[in-house]
Amino acid sequence: MYSRLYSVTQARYFSLSTRVNAVSSYSSSNARSNGKPKSRVDSKWSTRTKPPVKSWKDNSKPNYRKDLKEDVRGRPSQKRDQQKQQFKYGEYGNLSEGDPTILERSKRIVSKINDFSQLKILPEVRDKLMDVIASESLLNKSLKNVEYNPEESNVQEFKKSLKPSPIQTTTIYQTSKTLMDPQLQVRLIAAETGSGKTMAYLIPLVDYLKRVESENPAWESMKSKAIVRSIILLPTHELVEQVYQTVAKLQPALGMHTYKWDAGSSYKGFVEALKGRIDIMVTTPGKILSLFNISMVNRPDRILSQVKFLVMDEADTLLDKSWVEDSYSTIKHMQNLNHVLFCSATIPKEFQKTITRLFPSVGVIASPNLHKINHKNQIKLINADMAPYKGSKNKALAQILYSINRDNIDPGFEKRAVVFVNEKENVPAVAAKLTNQYGHDVVALTGNDSVEERLEKIGPFMSPPQRIAKVKLGKIDPENTKAKRIPNSNIVIEEAPEGSSESAFESTLKVLVTTDVLARGINFRGCRYVVLYDIPNTPVDLVHRVGRTGRMNQKGSVFIITGKRVKNWVKGIPSIVSKNVTIS
Ligand SMILES: Nc1ncnc2c1ncn2[C@@H]1O[C@H](COP(=O)(O)OP(=O)(O)OP(=O)(O)O)[C@@H](O)[C@H]1O
User: Fold this and answer.
1) CATH superfamily assigned to domain 377-467+501-579
2) Cα distance between residue 458 and residue 467, in whole Å
3) 90 DSSP 8-state letter
4) Nearest residue CA, atom 27 of ligand 1?
5) 3 state DSSP class of 44
6) What one-character DSSP code corresponds to residue 581?
7) What pLDDT, on a 0 to 100 scale, did the predictor assign at position 504?
8) Which of 402, 421, 464, 498 could form a disulfide with 533 if both were Cys (CB 3.0 to 4.6 A apart)?
9) With the CA atoms of 61, 66, 70 and 72 taken in that order, what torsion angle do they form, in degrees rounded to the nearest 10?
10) CB under 8 Å to 371, separation ≥6 — which residues?
11) Nearest Cα to 369, choosing from 346, 348, 350?
């Protein structure tokens, strides 16, 4: 059926300049569409008058006159209060300050709903998706990294205590109001890292597909067709793999036909899967666009025309300068979309501008904790210019790792730490130093590694922490320790004497040294420690890197290596986190 027919010229997607013209036609008229016929997606967006939920107002320019008026009336100025609670990340602050009314609305919804049963979800979908959460949540301490088996008692026990996270509550509540309204609905879901955004978009998506199956009379004739019904797009193959592991559980649970199209998949495999109908496909924009360049697939536009539900996860990346053209082209090929959900942990100002320019009707659902770092994280600044490190960041790092190893937190379990450096060129040297000089168990990962290598390297950090075999537990007695110098360094540490509780010091720490390539979206289960070898350049980098620990309201420890010339605002980071201040 999918023999060669497609012409490449037909598929060549428009250049950015053409696209920008096309974009401006969304908000105004069709006059600047370069004489090209407007796509169905275009016209849907341009004719839409009301966003499905409140759209995002730009609060970056303060309205002083309004503030003053409010102050004169003797009432507290909401705007000024908000500014007081914002932490400007040095000269690089680039996060949107947000619209307080959106956050207030979320708080109201969250205060009224605290159970999955209060949300409008098909009972079967609710039940199975709660099984999935219970089988993989990092809060479920009894998980042993086993195959998905909802019948297990530890899964069922944990399921009873499950509550929706704030972003899950607000997203499911808001989307359910108009889920089956056939008009195009575009939403941006924004919430802090590790807040359960994957389920926040997956539950409405699955609920939608299941409702179509039971409510749409055309379903009987559609169900055996070669169609793709929904797509989840992500920027990296690691994230495709991670999200697919969750999505794949819906195959046995709800009879969903799921498909992962990643770096290793063949076109033949895709065509085979398509013949049996794909309900949920997880992939990257690049893979979708490649459909237009292969001979095996006949009329890719037709395949994509049945996609009704699209999720763009890590949307601020997918719409940044280097991705926006591909991402936008991908969306435009899906002519009959009913729902588009953009999902992000951060709303940089640039992203906010892009999304409102491309999709003026976008409605925003944001969690009350957006742009805050989980205050349960303990942030420590380590000055590498001080003795005994004397300017050596590597010595400071070695000492941090050593102290992590001995801290007696989660005794009996392996420890994992992720070290972020700003430049990928520095990764091998830092990793080599830690391994060769300080004897740590380290893997180094950069964008230069192949997808397979990366997946293999991050594997141990993605699974729940393993119990250590044969560890003697016991408190470390500071009186009974002796000083030890780390070889070839001037770092002196205390070590338990032979025969005491030394096995509690036994190195069980696994260290991953990497860059921003792994800072986003990866759910490092059981990674309690993050070390920032360099000060992140932007608040977006800070939020994402720190967000690899302290997920779902857990505790995490973060060490930031600084120097004596560090700016004052950097020194303020620990206190803004503990005081739960919004970062901008
Ligand atoms: N309602 C819930 N209760 C308990 N755990 C949950 C719940 N929902 C999701 N989780 C778990 O929380 C963890 C974090 O979820 P997820 O990866 O979706 O976060 P995220 O918001 O997408 O993070 P990031 O912004 O870093 O991508 C996962 O282990 C997930 O299984």
Assistant:
1) P-loop containing nucleotide triphosphate hydrolases (3.40.50.300)
2) 18
3) G
4) 521
5) helix
6) P
7) 41
8) 421
9) 120
10) 95, 96, 98, 192, 346, 347, 539, 543, 582, 583, 584
11) 346
CA distance 79 to 69: 12
Tell me the whole-structure pTM to 2 decimals. Answer: 0.84
3-class DSSP state for residue 484? Answer: strand
Domains 100-366 and 377-467+501-579 share a fold: yes
Q: Which helix (H) or strand (E) holds 269?
A: helix 267-275
Q: Which two tokens stand for residue 168?
A: 């899950």
- Identify whether the C-beta of residue 308 lies closer than 8 Å to the C-beta of residue 228: no
Ligand 1 atom with minimal separation from the 163 CA: 1
The answer for residues whose C-beta is within 8 angstroms of residue 317's C-beta and 6 or more apart is 235, 323, 520
Tokens of residue 250, six digits: 């819906």
Rounded distance from Cα 79 to ligand 1 centre (Å): 31
Give me the interface pTM, i.e. the ipTM.
0.99
Task: Using pLDDT thresholds of 50, 70 and 90, give the confidence band for residue 91.
Answer: low
Domain boundaries, the chain: 100-366, 377-467+501-579
Q: How is residue 131 written in tokens?
A: 């099984």
Residue nearest to atom 11 of ligand 1 (CA): 137
Q: Does domain 100-366 have CATH number 3.40.50.300?
A: yes
Q: What share of the chain is helix, strand, coil (3-state, %, to 5)?
A: 40, 15, 45
